[in-house]
Amino acid sequence: MSRKMVMAIISRDQADQVLEALVSAGFGATFTESRGGVLRQSQLMLFVAADADKVESVLNLIRDHCHTDVAVSEQQALAGTGLEVPLSATTTTEVGYAVVFVWDLEQFHAF
Q1: What does each C-alpha distance from 62 to 46, 51, 77, 89, 95 come to in angstroms?
Q2: In this structure, are residues 30 and 23 in contact, taking their beta carbons and an 8 Å threshold?
Q3: Which of 23, 28, 34, 93 to pair with 16, CA 20 to 30 A apart?
Q4: pTM for the whole thing?
């Protein structure tokens, strides 16, 4: 049976729900912390090795437990306008979604 690696980058806020859903459905998962994106927020990279015919189930569990939200942040800058007062700008960014990659595993070993 061929196996696939599913790697999902998810927000820390949603990680526990995703991990619990995967384990409850019988999937094992390994994760590591990462930092990135526009807001440089802490995220988890989640790795699941699954049989090829089970990948859609893994994707559905991730999709069901990762929801998009909007984060608002204020940025201040002293523009070269000659003003001594900082200029403020509000930026909105989508956060909380999952970015998922799937690739073939040539070998899989559990010792």
Answers
A1: 10, 16, 38, 34, 15
A2: no
A3: 93
A4: 0.71
3 state DSSP class of 87: strand
Domain boundaries, the chain: 3-105
pLDDT in tens, 40-53: 677 899 999 999 99
Q: Which CATH number fits domain 3-105: 3.30.70.100, 3.30.360.10, 3.30.70.120, 3.30.1050.10?
A: 3.30.70.120
Dihedral pair phi/psi, residue 7, rounded to 5°: -115, 120
Cα–Cα distance between 101 and 90 in angstroms, integer? 32
Which residue is it, tokens 């608002």? 72
Q: At 92, which amino acid appears?
A: T
Q: What is the pLDDT of residues 9-24, one digit of tens each?
A: 998 888 899 999 999 9
Tokens of 4: 């696939």
pLDDT of residue 69: 64
